[in-house]
Automatic annotation (TrEMBL):
One of its GO terms (biological process) is oligosaccharide catabolic process. Belongs to the glycosyl hydrolase 13 family. Residues 13-407 form the Glycosyl hydrolase family 13 catalytic domain. InterPro entries: GH, GH13_cat_dom, Glyco_hydro_b, O16G_dom_2, SusG-like_C. GO terms for molecular function: alpha-amylase activity. Signal peptide: none annotated. This is Glucan 1,6-alpha-glucosidase. PANTHER family: ALPHA-AMYLASE FAMILY MEMBER (PTHR10357), NEUTRAL AND BASIC AMINO ACID TRANSPORT PROTEIN RBAT (PTHR10357:SF179).
Length: 542
């Protein structure tokens, strides 16, 4: 596989709304990101995945775009965006734009026109259908609860929305739509961006009349066309969000010879703590089974070979904070946050750090739905309440899996509103910011921040991490996730005890060097070694 800059890079995701406010409106902005570029350069990251900053009415916090070539007024101006790109470049940090092209906002000019009349030249930019027997066209459901069809009085038809009713799906069958998108992508490429994260890109080739939404028949045709018309051959990074991907599907998206994408986000590990089956989804809670986590992540580590590339993540703006979800955000907060950092960053693929993960930010439990902001959460609550679910059960699910958990403001210091804003924050600030914040992490050489910084440095120093073979240790206790990385005659052993109880690991060979650990360990010797609660380390054994 030809080496590319993103193969040994680490990407940092910023949710602009919650990163840093500079004008006191309680909402993060582009100037706030520029203000912290030195912090990110210190961390050592190579690129920023910037969640949408385009003009939007914020029905889905920017994932409902009304003008792809204008900046949301709360976030600043196009000049601010150009400054961010150039200031990032000055620090060797690329800006990866979030490309949301499965749907637009219902305030986008195309949709405003499309819904005016059936003869409108923009009508076929979206998916319109007649009622069937006076009802919705078929059983397609929105991810945000309810039917995926919204009736529009003006022309007496339904339009498709796989997300909110204010996010109408674009019709990618229409070549004019595709060309409009490619023109827009080239607008941003000409601005000097480093690539694109592609929102639910596996949905763009849908067959609504057959209720096919993911990985539709023309998905690879469209992506090869997009590649050729925009980023192809320009050394830009692209990552597709593909919730249903298997390793075989991932190769189709990310095999360099296919000229589609650089990599994809797969979510198989994300679904391990939920019930599966008819009508079940992330809100139906199930404890994590560590052996399943080992099996799933190891499968992804060995399945792609040289025919594809992995993204590595625990967190993003849609997921609960890992230290609360699968770690321990009380007694073993620091140990478990470092454990998940070590476990992930020693794997093969491009790691992603979500804002605040590098300091161990946690979930924020609510006690009433009035404290929730996210449309997905609120819609689920209302739908399930009407179906008879108990409020307590719904609040428990929201506290475990709600997207607001990831969207509480970045915790910069222990001042008012954690230094995020001088105004009223758009979403509650976690009160634990008094203890968990950037300032405190930077002042403590043994903090979670410096564990992430060291892991990023190690990736730059060792081709073993980037290219080495992966081998899961199978003769370990359930709770111990241990694997080897092997490259050019060198072997590293990574071990993590994902539990509050001690568990033993047999280390068969002599230990040459301790690379990193989250406990003070004078020495690790061969033989039986007892890992303490949430203990993780990396040793060189050959
Ligand atoms: O998410 C795709 C998506 O399906 C998620 O909403 C996911 O199913 C759900 O959040 C699981 O909790 C992308 C963006 O990441 C998300 O923020 C947007 O809301 C969504 O697409 C629509 O653009």
């Amino acid at each position: 596989m030809e080496k590319k800059w993103w193969h040994n890079s680490v990407v940092y995701q910023i949710y602009p709304r919650s990163f840093q406010d500079t004008d006191g409106d309680g909402i993060g902005d582009l100037k706030g990101i520029i203000q912290h570029l030195d912090y990110l350069e210190n961390l050592g990251i190579d690129a920023i995945w910037l969640s949408p900053v385009y003009q939007s009415p914020n029905d889905d916090n920017g994932y409902d775009i009304s003008d792809y070539e204008a900046i949301m007024k709360e976030f600043g101006s196009m000049e601010d965006m150009e400054c961010l790109i150039s200031e990032g470049k000055n620090r060797g940090i690329k800006i990866i734009m979030d490309l949301v092209v499965n749907h637009t906002s219902d305030e986008h000019a195309w949709f405003v026109e499309s819904r005016k009349n059936k003869e409108n030249k923009y009508r076929d930019y979206y998916v319109w259908r007649d009622a069937v027997n006076g009802e919705v066209p078929n059983g397609l459901r929105s991810t945000f609860s309810g039917t995926a069809w919204e009736f529009d009085e003006t022309t007496g038809q339904y339009f498709l929305h796989l997300f909110s009713k204010r996010q109408p799906d674009l019709n990618w069958e229409n070549q004019k739509v595709r060309q409009e998108i490619y023109d827009m992508m080239n607008f941003w490429i000409d601005k000097g961006v480093g690539g694109f994260r592609m929102d639910v890109i596996d949905l763009i080739s849908k067959v609504p009349d057959k209720e096919i939404t993911g990985n539709g028949p023309k998905i690879h045709e469209y992506l090869q066309e997009m590649n050729s018309a925009t980023f192809g051959g320009k050394d830009l990074m692209t990552v597709g969000e593909t919730w249903g991907a298997t390793p075989e599907i991932a190769k189709l998206y990310s095999n360099p010879e296919r000229k589609e994408l650089s990599m994809i986000f797969q979510f198989e590990h994300v679904g391990l703590d939920q019930e599966h089956g008819e009508g079940k989804d992330k809100w139906d809670l199930r404890p994590l089974n560590v052996p399943e986590l080992k099996q799933v992540l190891s499968k992804w580590q060995v399945s792609l070979g040289n025919d594809g590339w992995n993204s590595l993540f625990w967190n993003n703006h849609d997921l609960p904070r890992i230290v609360s979800r699968w770690g321990n955000d009380t007694i073993y907060h620091e140990k478990s946050a470092k454990l998940f950092a070590i476990l992930l960053h020693m794997m093969k693929g491009t790691p992603y750090i979500y804002q605040g993960e590098e300091i161990g930010m946690t979930n924020y439990p609510i006690s009433d739905i009035s404290e929730a902001e996210d449309i997905e959460t609120i819609n689920m609550y209302n739908e399930r309440l009407a179906l008879g679910f108990a409020k307590e059960t719904l609040i428990e699910s929201i506290n475990a899996k709600g997207r607001d958990n990831a969207r509480t403001p970045m915790q910069w210091d222990n001042s008012t509103n954690a230094g995020f804003t001088t105004g009223t924050p758009w979403l509650h600030v976690n009160p634990n910011a008094k203890e968990i914040n950037v300032k405190k992490n930077l002042e403590n050489p043994d903090s979670i921040f410096y564990t992430y910084k060291k892991l990023i440095t190690l990736r730059k120093q060792h081709d073993l991490i980037v290219w080495g073979e992966y081998e899961l240790l199978t003769d370990t206790p359930n709770e111990i996730f241990a694997y080897k990385r092997i490259f050019n005659g060198e072997t590293w052993l990574v071990a993590a005890n994902i539990s509050t109880e001690p568990h033993s690991l047999y280390i068969p060979t002599s230990v040459k060097e301790t690379i990193i650990s989250n406990y003070d360990i004078s020495e690790i010797s061969s033989g039986t070694f007892q890992l303490r609660p949430y203990e993780a380390f990396v040793i060189r054994i050959l």
